[in-house]
Amino acid sequence: MVRANERGVTPQSVDFSAWYNELVVKAELADHGPVRGTMVIRPYGYRIWELLQGELDRRIKATGHENAYFPIFIPMGHLQREAEHIEGFAPELAVVTHAGGHELDEPLVVRPTSETVIGEMFSRWIHSYRDLPVLLNQWANVVRWELRPRLFLRTTEFLWQEGHTAHATEEEAVAETMTAAGFYEEVARDIAAIPVILGDKTPSERFAGAERTVSLEALVRDGRALQAGTSHYLGTNFAKAFDITFTNQAGTLEYAQTTSWGMSTRMIGAVIMTHGDDKGLILPPRLAPYEVVIVPVGRETESGPVLDAARAIAQSLREAGVRTTVDDRSQLSAGWRFNEWELRGAPIRLEIGPRDLAAGAVTLAERLGGDKVQVPIDHVVSELPLRLEAFQAALLARATAFRDEHTVVTDTFEELVRAVASGFALALACGSEACENAVKAATTATPRCIPLDGAPASGPCVVCGAPSGYGTRVLFARAY
User: Domains (ranges, CATH) in the chain?
Assistant: First the structure.
């Protein structure tokens, strides 16, 4: 555990980046691996990932997908079959040239994503329209050589899930793309308490080799965007590269329509930066390793009736489905333990000492703040699940309000520049890559997406004055 003189973190207002980097380590979510850019996920952080993974996996399976696993090594020639794909990933590839004491005949790429190896297998497995659709998902690690790594946000190796599907028609594949984006949106909103804006990437921002990329964009507390998940309609690009064909009902040979979609451990970074404050993490209950932490206080808490009562309450809460732990480290002061669990973001803390026990109550403190309250011990099991639901809802409302307060509709380039300094800008854009580059050069902001629920809008591009090209405003922001 962190030591007393290491508990504090730099305030967000002083240096948000330092706040984040310190918090990830001090809250024992992750640490830096021995190879630059790699990450060791510690048990507390991995439990958050397991909870997120469980929620997402349940939704994936409920929509008819099955889990599978594919190799981490991909022949270089496979990536080169889809020209746009290899060009998009070339700077990030880790390549194996020697193995078993010998130089390989063909270099192997350590998996940056799996469209190519799965395309190869689809070509072996799909022959008839009766073989479609194929709905697969894998939980895996991937490697992308990051120049500016940051724990959870951009690491050389990270964990994710990647869905890969094949369909007979464009309509089915596009519907699949939106299904995946829909359950990402649901997990972000209902589990991570993060409101996201769902939209199409502009052509220059699409996934390499995709016909369409649907992105989920979150706004974190320093006013930057964070991409929380993507879903790609690949059309027949990979099917043509890997000869994924099938005989249709009329007996004619067609290329399959494919999709891919993914969400990663980056979501943990999104949770930290969306909800955290100067005291540390604030975890949504549905992702908290411990929703309730019970801290026995007072003298002689190594044993005796106070500790017995704390353990009995914890067991009752666990039986009610509430993840609960008892912090019975009596060698540490109660205040030290209170501060540590604030740092680590536990939603609810229960304090119990001799006076509480004599009164038949516990003292309850919520991580979002407010006065401590007394709760009768015999009301704890019935009351705390309701408080946890309210806490979850309050976090989502707080994050939504922050996003809305930092989203500005802009009509001029000057307004856009001011808006992206602290949040989202909605602007009319012609769609040219030159104009997108001009915005990036002036502000470092990029077009995050074209919101799917954007109101109809037309007029001149804020950069060049040409007619807008999308029928609605484009979302711009600086991003991680």
Answer: 4-275 (3.30.930.10), 285-390 (3.40.50.800), 407-477 (3.30.110.30)
